[in-house]
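Whiteboard transcription, Tuesday session. T.W. wrote the structure tokens on the left side:
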């Protein structure tokens, strides 16, 4: 009998994860292919897209494209292995698969990794929304947000007020859904806004290239010393973070009308997101060149050098803020499931317990809201999270599950891919963490000097 069925909640076989009749809301016949693609694509395309042009500045165009495609390929393979091993273990959750393979410790470690990753991502999302709509300070310089620019400084345009109003009136209703498929329309809008962002960047870059005001970007990395060489590896966790979606694979699959569609859904979503990532990275780097910032959104607070520059800046920033608002509930969905699994491993499924559902939801929202108002730096935390919990959830656990192969179904190809994923994950994460620490220490010493 599978680990999760034997020692934990009865949701895997005794009762469905998602109730078919949702409190009188009508019969739910299962999620559609398109709805699942939108939900999975929204899970993938979050804040990571804003950091990708900066990776091209570090790597150059050619290595950048290669690594984006490679990360997408490895992500697809890792998800395919998770799904296949889950069916063999007769479990319908990622944590159940980890428990079946590594017993209780593996299950708890995976759920902890998902919680750390998702909390970090959601705090980052909320901070960026505050930066875009209200204000932010960078190196002692005040950057005015869109709402403050439009309406001036009032109590309701302050950062705290905007985040509080967004939490109550936007996040509150969206995170209250008990089925992930209920978010399919907001996910479709979110993907559409990401595409709008790409189209605007591409259009502006092409216009400026025709005018001769920008040159072709560098194709290969510019390595001038040892520090610049090691800095190349700090881009890997960002790329891994950009593709992380493993925590939502099972919730989406469990609601499908035809679960056999999950594999083509994964392939379609990753192909779509890879195309968006390559286009965003190339045209963003082409547009801003060596002035591309770690968060390319920060480049859209000045004159773009074309007509209607101010209007385009506002469209880009507002559309991206709305995009993040719509990504938030998708990531929150799996966060709530895994926190509930850690706190109440023997309880009935959370969707059947309204008091527990809303208590866990309110507690997590309060914690994320406080984190967004008090965390000082998002990008160092973003890189560190990507180099630890995200890499573990996305690559290390799938590879370890395939190599452990408790169900004796792993092929030679599975083992080869798993060793590659394990090596790349561990080596790149180690170098990235060391490089980040070196940059922090070296940067502080330079500032003191």
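and on the right, the sequence the group agreed on:
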């Amino acid at each position: 009998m599978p680990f999760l069925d034997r020692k934990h909640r009865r949701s895997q076989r005794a009762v469905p994860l998602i109730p078919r009749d949702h409190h009188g809301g009508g019969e739910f016949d299962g999620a559609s292919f398109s709805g699942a693609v939108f939900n999975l694509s929204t899970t993938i395309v979050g804040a990571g897209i804003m950091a990708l042009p900066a990776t091209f500045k570090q790597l150059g165009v050619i290595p950048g494209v290669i690594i984006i495609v490679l990360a997408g390929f490895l992500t697809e393979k890792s998800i395919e292995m998770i799904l296949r091993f889950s069916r063999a273990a007769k479990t319908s959750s990622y944590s159940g698969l980890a428990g079946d393979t590594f017993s209780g410790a593996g299950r708890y470690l995976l759920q902890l990794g998902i919680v750390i990753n998702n909390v970090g991502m959601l705090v980052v999302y909320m901070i960026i929304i505050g930066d875009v709509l209200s204000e932010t300070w960078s190196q002692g310089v005040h950057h005015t947000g869109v709402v403050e620019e439009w309406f001036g400084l009032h109590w309701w345009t302050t950062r705290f007020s905007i985040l509080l109003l967004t939490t109550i009136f936007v996040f509150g209703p969206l995170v209250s859904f008990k089925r992930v498929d209920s978010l399919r329309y907001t996910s479709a809008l979110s993907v559409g806004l990401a595409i709008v962002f790409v189209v605007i960047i591409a259009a502006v870059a092409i216009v400026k290239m025709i005018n001769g005001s920008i040159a072709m970007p560098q194709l290969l990395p510019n390595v001038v010393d040892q520090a610049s060489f090691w800095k190349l590896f700090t881009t890997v966790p960002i790329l891994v973070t950009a593709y992380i979606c493993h925590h939502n694979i099972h919730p989406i699959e469990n609601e499908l009308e035809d679960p056999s569609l999950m594999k083509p859904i994964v392939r379609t979503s990753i192909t779509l997101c890879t195309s968006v990532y390559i286009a965003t990275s190339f045209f963003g780097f082409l547009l801003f060149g060596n002035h591309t910032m770690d968060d390319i959104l920060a480049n859209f607070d000045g004159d773009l050098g074309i007509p209607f520059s101010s209007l385009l800046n506002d469209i880009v920033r507002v559309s991206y803020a709305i995009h993040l608002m719509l990504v938030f509930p998708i990531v929150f969905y799996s966060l709530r499931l895994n926190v509930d699994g850690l706190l109440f491993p023997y309880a009935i499924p959370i969707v059947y317990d309204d008091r527990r559902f809303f208590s866990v939801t309110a507690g997590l929202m309060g914690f994320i809201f406080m984190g967004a108002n008090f965390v000082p730096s998002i990008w160092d935390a973003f890189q560190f999270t990507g180099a630890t919990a995200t890499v573990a959830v996305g690559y290390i656990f799938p590879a370890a599950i395939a190599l452990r192969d408790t169900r004796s179904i792993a092929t030679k190809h599975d083992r080869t891919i798993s060793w590659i994923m394990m090596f790349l994950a561990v080596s790149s994460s180690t170098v990235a963490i060391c490089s980040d620490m070196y940059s922090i220490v070296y940067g502080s010493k330079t500032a003191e000097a």
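Someone added at the bottom: The longest strand covers residues 135-138.
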